[in-house]
Amino acid sequence: MTIQKTPHEEIEELLARIAMGDRKAFSALYDRTSAKLFGICLRVLGDRAEAEEALQEAYVRIWNRADAYRVNGFSPMTWLITLTRNIAVDRRRRRPARPAEALDLADTMPDTGPGPEDITEERSEAQRLHACLRELPDDRAALVRSAYLDGFTYAELSEATGIKLNTVRTWLRRSLIQLRECLAR
Amino acid sequence: MSVGVDTVGPEDGGTALAAEYVLGLMSDAESEAFEARLADEDALVDEVVLWTEYLARLVDAIPETAPAAAVKRRIEATAFGETLGRWSRSPLRQIIPYGIGGALAAMALWAAVSFGLVGGGGPEQPVLVADVTLEDLPVAIHAGYFAEAGELLVIREQGEVPAGADLELWLVQEGAAPVSLGLVPRTEERVRYPLADVVAADLGGATLAVSREPPGGSITGLPTGPVVGTAPVLPF
Fold first, then answer.
1. How many domains are contained in chain A?
2. Same-domain pairing of A79 and A148
3. pLDDT tens digit sequence for A29-64
4. Is A59 on the interface with B (CB under 8 A)?
5. E-strand spans in B32-139?
6. pTM over 0.80
């Protein structure tokens, strides 16, 4: 009888093999994670061609830096997500300035919670996060989401919401502290 | 990994700072100051890990979208091509003396390294390239201008940016002040800089120069440190 590996363990193993230069493992990791990571690039950049470039940069970095994954102490999906999100955000911030799209804090993404394939530990983290976000006023939760998912700076958040810069900063900081207090419970 | 939730504690200003750091909301100066604290405060590191883990869960709400099949081929060609390049580049450098062979070497390297021609390559090719090796520093830099994207791709192909300094790229034209193109990437091997059309229009026939500058680059808009390498910008 074979012991079933968790998705977490499988991705960790793929990263370990990639660190040794295993191309098949890289191909398998890509097949497994690219739709999720491409979704992130599209969300941040809002442009398919740019998202593809960001995705390419992310996977080339994964290929070159898979050996660095262990050092940071993150779960494997967190490492992949964070690396990709930050590449996409960097690209968005480097491109010539254009007006931030209006962000309607009253009409933001529903809190759908974790997907079915999430593994147990990550699911419990996700559930806690989403429960704590629901404790915040809707507009404050939307600010937190936008800061992460759109990669907006304080100035962009202010422009997109029409709320003064200092107010946005205060609201977001307070919301983060409130969120953290809830997560610690 | 499992995340301890009562490390620094929410009452400490550290937690909001850690979250801002993870979200990328800090200015460069704030980030540097925070990173200096991270070096000494393990609890703050835990806080950064905790925020990174939790905030990454926000992407669960983003719909998954499969990229086009060509993207995978391009990625593999680039990733694996670079690996091959590690072995194939150095011998080329040994046999082609700089100067006369520089342009040829630059083109061969661009073909093999940057565009993954090994695997068929992509449609995107630079229109202009420059290939700079530095005096006194074991650093080799390739730059390529992509007209369609309006971007300059800068690759630090060999060597490291020296600690305590930055290397800045300049576009130099006879009779005109140098124009800063950006810094040579320190942690990454490559970076893309969007170029203004007026700058891009001057690229052909100009010279790319690299100067050694204080960390963060020249604040005067002109080179302040020694020029450590130059190369002509040539058609690819």
1. 2
2. no
3. 999 999 999 999 999 999 999 999 999 999 998 998
4. yes
5. 128-133
6. no
